[in-house]
């Protein structure tokens, strides 16, 4: 019945293969792969293992890339909290009194950690020796998570010379142990400020400033060698710029415990607005035991660099308190649209220096008489770092007295 089986076979087989290809292409590709595998001179299991290894390798690569990406963004996110933790550690370990419940959060939010500096100061035979010992917990300025720190040291306002340390590579905790000498006489020392600026070295671009320390030398007791850690602060922007002068009178009446400050006038105030003029006003603050205590301010004088105020403020300050109190006088530019800017600042008190100490001492030695004097303004960063004021104290009972 089937004499032509081979022909029939050959006839059937092409149709079946045809059917296969049209009906299910996967089967065809499988068949093709099968043929291909047959051509490879390796046992089937060996080929499967090689295939499995290749797939595994690709998977591992993909996972590695994913993990790498995740870690990087995590690290970036983690960077800031890290510094804040450092800051908390720093303040916690140096002065526990600094940690006050309630007001800490706001402070940590606004203050960027710039690290700390251990320095020493010694004044002997008309020579000031500044020791730059070491820095710690500096922020990372480079992409690699490190910095290349070095420090510049100079004295203002007479910036006779600027000295600098070596650059320390890839570290956030450099140990410098370098000493710098400045020839300076006692009178000039009383009016000077030492500036230590920490920079991040960069061969190819402008060196970033990490932070700075400013210390008014007139306030220092030179009977001892000073060696201490201090937090670096934000670099002052108003370096070597004339900020202006202010004239006010002071009067203290011990019997009534009344301190009267009359803000008379200011002149040559630095303009803070783009237009070139300012709307100045003056804040008069008292600080006690490194805390803000009382505060008053003058009216705003429109569009002038030489305002005349003649405004009087009276504070109740006991005779005991007058020897510890600091009077902080600051000139501000009133700005309707943005935050008000401080033009300049000074402070007076028994721990003030130079001209300011003289004025305060004159007031104390001439009770009941108003004593007026002109003062040069300093940058508020400089005064703030000298004062190192903490949070304000509220003594409602005393405030009600007047
Ligand atoms: C410097 O100031 C101190 C007080 O801060 C004072 O005792 C001293 O006489 C002043 N020296 C000079 C030379 O002005
Ligand atoms: C300053 O104010 C006082 C009173 O507060 C006044 O007696 C005096 O005349 C004023 N001086 C000037 C120059 O306006």
Automatic annotation (TrEMBL):
User: Which intervals hold domain C2?
Assistant: 113-230, 242-375
Q: Does the keyword Membrane apply?
A: yes
InterPro entries per the UniProt record, alphabetical:
C2_dom (IPR000008), C2_domain_sf (IPR035892), Synaptotagmin (IPR001565)
List membrane-spanning regions: 45-67
Q: Does the keyword Repeat apply?
A: yes
**GO biological process terms held by the UniProt record:** calcium ion-regulated exocytosis of neurotransmitter; synaptic vesicle endocytosis
Ranges for region Disordered: 1-23
Q: Name one Pfam family in it.
A: C2
> Which keywords does this Swiss-Prot/TrEMBL entry list?
Membrane, Repeat, Transmembrane, Transmembrane helix
| Parts forming coiled coils | none
Q: Where is the composition biased (Low complexity)?
A: 13-23
Gene Ontology MF term list: calcium ion binding; calcium-dependent phospholipid binding; clathrin binding; phosphatidylserine binding; SNARE binding
Q: Name one GO cellular component term.
A: axon
The record, for SUPFAM superfamilies, names: C2 domain (Calcium/lipid-binding domain, CaLB) (SSF49562)
Write down the superkingdom of origin: Eukaryota
Q: Which family does the record assign?
A: Belongs to the synaptotagmin family.
- Protein name, as recorded: C2 domain-containing protein
